[in-house]
């Protein structure tokens, strides 16, 4: 082992020990969530990870932001965050994004349902219901194989399981119409049967990564599995815990949670290639935020053993907070991609903020917040 490797190893363990020692106070969770939310709103159209123009307000990137931001809005002391979110929906007539079948363009529907729950305005969800009804009665017949014709008309990449299924589950919950649940279950099961590795209890990003190795390890993208893990939670939140559908998702969730506990890095984050932390030492906060969100939720629900999982949540949350700048920017968010890559302390993305706010909403509860 050379000097550089020894230094990196010692630094990693020192940071891990420091993180473990830091107590988490509910008030401090609220404070950092507010800082991150406010910074993101002020820099909503900022270009922080190399793209040439701001994301469209209905794009999946912002849709993922809204999923976390609406959780923060429910915790904040005034309605200014709700008003900001409502203004986005009003400006775009409560429409989903441009592609009818593509899961990414459904993501903003999660926000619309949550705003409907607050304001009880049917106009907020009518376009989503109409579009999803069309999809149900004209279901895509495309293959789940990657790069086949019109392949992304179905959920053949793991990110999709965060983007679209929770919208279907929310519509089922608020309307009581089981057709939404049945459609979602059929498609979710098809995707899981195709992309879930039963040996590793993780999801391939898509078919193109199956059978490939990165430094001798299978390629399981951290944020990709984070999308899935958070998506499972967002779906289960809409279902009866005694239902067979809930139990289906719970089984996957528990398998993933156990795996994630084993592969968390000593520093508290998860490596961008989940099984290759020796080769991807750089922190990455979007995937890690989704894992902290999901694990803290499981403890709060009494699903995961607190003594077993709480240390991982504590270590992970402290690591995340350590990558928030003094002015509230969440750093080390991997730019848009589909595979393990790089992240930098001065680069961020709106979906990273959304993931962080989701994580904070459950960490706050876990440590006694009301």
TrEMBL record:
Gene3D superfamilies: 1.50.10.10. Pfam families: Glyco_hydro_88. GO terms for molecular function: hydrolase activity. The keyword Cell division does not apply. The keyword Isomerase does not apply. This is Glycoside hydrolase family 88 protein. InterPro entries: 6-hairpin_glycosidase_sf, 6hp_glycosidase-like_sf, Glyco_hydro_88, PolySaccharide_Degr_Enz. GO terms for biological process: carbohydrate metabolic process. Keywords: Hydrolase.
């Amino acid at each position: 082992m050379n000097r550089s490797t020894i230094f990196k190893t010692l630094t990693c363990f020192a940071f891990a020990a420091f993180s473990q020692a830091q107590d988490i106070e509910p008030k401090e969770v609220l404070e950092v969530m507010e800082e991150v939310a406010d910074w993101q709103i002020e820099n909503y159209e900022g270009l922080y990870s190399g793209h040439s123009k701001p994301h469209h307000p209905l794009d999946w990137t912002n849709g993922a932001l809204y999923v976390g931001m609406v959780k923060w809005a429910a915790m904040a002391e005034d309605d200014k965050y709700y008003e900001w979110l409502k203004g986005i929906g009003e400006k775009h007539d409560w429409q989903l994004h441009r592609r009818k079948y593509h899961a990414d363009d459904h993501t903003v529907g999660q926000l619309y349902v949550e705003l409907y729950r607050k304001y009880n305005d049917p106009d907020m969800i009518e376009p989503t219901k109409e579009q999803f009804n069309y999809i149900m009665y004209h279901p895509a017949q495309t293959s789940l194989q990657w790069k086949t014709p019109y392949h992304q008309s179905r959920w053949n990449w793991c990110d999709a399981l965060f983007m679209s299924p929770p919208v279907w589950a929310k519509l089922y919950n608020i309307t009581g119409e089981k057709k939404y649940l049945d459609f979602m279950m059929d498609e979710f099961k098809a995707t899981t049967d195709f992309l879930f590795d039963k040996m590793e209890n993780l999801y391939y990003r898509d078919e193109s990564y199956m059978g490939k190795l990165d430094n001798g390890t299978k390629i399981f993208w951290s944020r990709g599995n984070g999308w899935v893990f958070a998506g499972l939670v967002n779906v289960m939140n809409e279902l009866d815990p005694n239902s067979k559908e809930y139990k289906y998702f719970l089984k996957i969730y528990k398998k993933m949670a156990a795996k994630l506990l084993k592969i968390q890095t000593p520093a508290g984050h998860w490596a961008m290639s989940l099984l290759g932390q020796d080769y991807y030492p750089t922190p990455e906060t979007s995937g890690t935020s989704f894992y902290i969100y999901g694990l803290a939720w499981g403890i709060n629900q009494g699903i995961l053993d607190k003594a077993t999982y709480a240390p991982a949540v504590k270590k992970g949350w402290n690591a995340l907070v350590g990558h928030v700048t003094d002015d509230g920017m969440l750093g080390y968010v991997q730019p848009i991609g589909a595979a393990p890559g790089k992240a930098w302390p001065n680069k961020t993305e709106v979906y990273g903020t959304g993931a962080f706010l989701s994580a904070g909403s459950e960490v706050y509860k876990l440590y006694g917040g009301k």
